[in-house]
Amino acid sequence: MIGRRNLGKLIGKEAVKPSAGQQQVEDRGQTSLPSSGADSRSGSRGTEALMRKVRRGRLRLPITLSVVLMVLNIALMVFWIILAAQIYWWSALTVGTVVFVLILVGLSLYLVLTIKEVRLNQRQSDFIDSVTHELKTPIASLRLYLETLQIRSLSDEQRGEFYGTMKSELERLDHLISQLLEVKRLDALGMQSDPEDILLEPLIRHCAKLECNRRQLEIDQVCEFDFEPAMVHTRRILLEMIFRNVIDNAIKYGGTEPKVQIQVRVSSGGRVITRVMDNGEGVDPEIRKDIFKIFYRGESELERRKTGTGLGLYIVRTLVHLLGGKVTVHDRLDQPGSVFAIDLPGKAEA
To answer: For this UniProt entry, which segments traverse the membrane (predicted)?
Structure first.
């Protein structure tokens, strides 16, 4: 496979006097090569530390202001109680105490809401950075490959590799844009079609195949299935979005060679439980609730070890709740990895 790193070498084999277009692509191929590992890591750590410092600074002002006002309110309330008690103004004491308590509650709510708003703004900022990166990367790659095809005489095999890579980049771009559009219309998604009884086994196998193909993986080498015959009465597009995003997450955060196990069980209470298990590092218990929030990504946006926007699991949770179900995550017991359990109303296949 000819990757972007090898384009510079390929173009460098051109004649001694390359044209302006060739020189431009050669420069791009060379500049796309990463710098030394030590410099890259130290630069990333320094930038990340700076970003953490800036974010702490954003929270410091509202927290400090709220704490000062709370302390002042408590001091005034104590002073008022002592003063009113000394002169036996019991009605004033009661009214004043209630007012001070309400002010204290209001300040507490203000602090909580302010912190939530600041954190949401941070996630939105990270999301914009991430989407910008996710959009620019495949576009830059496509442009580089197209320019190389224009100025170089390549063999049929090389052209085939180029076309395959370009197709993968286009599919990656299409997947990102689809996610962005899906979030916009989650509430009305699928309402144009009628609910139907949907068998889970063929639907989940189809979703797994699509996600493996998108990543150029063989489904038989990645996925293992263990199904009990089950069906869910809903709209097909909703289930496809749920399971495609969960399987995509399992492959993305799996091991170096991802292995995904998918299990479907029918409970006696009219519920269908689907478990999607990966072989990754697992999810920190402290962030298990946060990973389903919109724009949330557990790792630093600066490192970008994994591509993504923080929308996939938010889509999953929103649609599962829309169908009257719930989604949870916990560690695997048999090996490292995570288990995403999707509990939906359903029944055994008739």
So the answer is: 61-82, 88-113
